[in-house]
UniProtKB/TrEMBL annotation:
<feature type="domain" description="Cation-transporting P-type ATPase C-terminal">
    <location>
        <begin position="1"/>
        <end position="130"/>
    </location>
</feature>
<dbReference type="GO" id="GO:0005886">
    <property type="term" value="C:plasma membrane"/>
</dbReference>
<keyword id="KW-0479">Metal-binding</keyword>
<feature type="domain" description="Plasma membrane calcium transporting P-type ATPase C-terminal">
    <location>
        <begin position="159"/>
        <end position="181"/>
    </location>
</feature>
<dbReference type="InterPro" id="IPR022141">
    <property type="entry name" value="ATP_Ca_trans_C"/>
</dbReference>
<feature type="transmembrane region" description="Helical">
    <location>
        <begin position="9"/>
        <end position="27"/>
    </location>
</feature>
<keyword id="KW-0460">Magnesium</keyword>
<feature type="transmembrane region" description="Helical">
    <location>
        <begin position="109"/>
        <end position="128"/>
    </location>
</feature>
<dbReference type="GO" id="GO:0005388">
    <property type="term" value="F:P-type calcium transporter activity"/>
</dbReference>
<keyword id="KW-1133">Transmembrane helix</keyword>
<dbReference type="InterPro" id="IPR023298">
    <property type="entry name" value="ATPase_P-typ_TM_dom_sf"/>
</dbReference>
<dbReference type="Pfam" id="PF00689">
    <property type="entry name" value="Cation_ATPase_C"/>
</dbReference>
<feature type="transmembrane region" description="Helical">
    <location>
        <begin position="39"/>
        <end position="58"/>
    </location>
</feature>
<feature type="transmembrane region" description="Helical">
    <location>
        <begin position="78"/>
        <end position="97"/>
    </location>
</feature>
<dbReference type="InterPro" id="IPR006068">
    <property type="entry name" value="ATPase_P-typ_cation-transptr_C"/>
</dbReference>
<keyword id="KW-0472">Membrane</keyword>
<protein>
    <submittedName>
        <fullName>P-type ATPase (P-ATPase) Superfamily</fullName>
    </submittedName>
</protein>
Amino acid sequence: MTKHIVGQGIFQLIVLLVLTFAGDSILNIPTGHKASAPSAHYTIVFNTFVFLQLFNEINARRIHDELNVFDGFFRNQLYIGIQIIQVVLQVLIVQYGGRAFKCAPLTGGQWAVCLLLGALSLPVGLLLRMVHASSMPQFFSSCQEVEVVREPSARSKELWIRGFARLRTQIRVINAFKRSVAQRRLLTEKSI
C-alpha cells in the first residue's frame, strides 16, 4: 500500500506542479497568477486534481496488486452511484460554482484535458502494481514476517482460566448487588 500512496503522490504532485507553474503556457490560456477573478487556469488545476483522485479510487479497489482493477466493477452498485454523484457534483461546481467555489467554466477541450490527465492515474497504478514489493526498499514493503501460530502453552491456558474465573466472580457480585437493591426497593415500596 505504501508504494501506491508514495507513487501516486509523486505522480500527482508532478502533474499538478506542472499545471500550476507552466499550464497556462502549455494550454495557451491566460495565467491565473495574481488574477482577481476565477481563472480557467486554476480551475483546470483544481479539476485535474479531483479527477486524479476519482480515477485513483478505481485503482484503490484492489489492494493486493491484482492487475485488473475493473474486475467486478459493475457489480457494486453503491460504488458506481457514489462515483456518478462525485462526477456530477464536480461538473456542477466547475461549470456553475462561479465565485462561490472560485471556478471559471471550462470549455469542452479543457474538460478533455482534465479527464485525460486524471485518467493517467490508471496506468500509473498498473505500473506500481507490476513492481513487486520485494524489489522495493524495506520501507515500501508490506510483506512482513508471519509468525507461526503454535499450540497455546500451559501458562497461557492457566491465565485464560484465571481470567474467566475472575469474570464469573465479578458477574456474581454484580448480580448479588442488583438483587439486594431490588429487595430494598421492594421493602421501601411496601412500607410506604
